């Protein structure tokens, strides 16, 4: 799952990068490549994770955290030796794409649409979450050992690990809601229809009042 999450964030940044640098042609290219990218995202992790399918899983009790965790007979050393370099390479690549995109945006003489700008901000926010996940996973793997596992910082790192993983998955729809007014409006209509109707009525009343005021002013002028 981590491979897919990081690849998706990288592809999001790559999409925003191409949107900024090749605004006239990027959409056609992405439309043609989309189906191939979907297949690539799902097939790419298999060579690095196939040992998980061949191993058995079981529950273990962690005394320091007073909880149960899922363990496996798989070779963790093999998994992490592949995972950490991948995390580092993808995170650095994503950082380069985002920095280049924001720099180009700051130097552009013409303004892009609000939607395109918000998509770029979404890409930056995704990178921040990706960076936190990368640092947390690296610290947990390389620095947590028997001599310091009881320290507060190491316990925090271990405890945050599953939440960071969930954050990588759940951040996409929440950012979509945060940066898209249309998505927020549809969300309100779907889950809070009463509030949406009140807001809609208020907007209509304001529009009617404005129209009436303009009509009165025109009449007075005549």
UniProtKB/TrEMBL annotation:
Q: Which InterPro entries match?
A: 7TM_GPCR_serpentine_rcpt_Srg (IPR000609)
Topology class, membrane: Multi-pass membrane protein
Going by the UniProt record, its keywords in alphabetical order are: Membrane, Transmembrane, Transmembrane helix
Q: Name one GO cellular component term.
A: membrane
Checking Pfam families in the record gives: Srg
Compartment list: Membrane
Please verify whether the record's keywords include Membrane: yes
Question: Please, one GO biological process term?
Answer: sensory perception of chemical stimulus
Which GO MF terms does the UniProt record name? Answer: transmembrane signaling receptor activity
Q: Where are the transmembrane segments?
A: 6-24, 36-59, 79-103, 115-133, 153-179
PANTHER family registered for this protein in UniProt? SERPENTINE RECEPTOR CLASS GAMMA (PTHR31552), SERPENTINE RECEPTOR CLASS GAMMA-33 (PTHR31552:SF14)
What family does the entry list? Belongs to the nematode receptor-like protein srg family.
What is the protein's name according to its record? Answer: Serpentine receptor class gamma
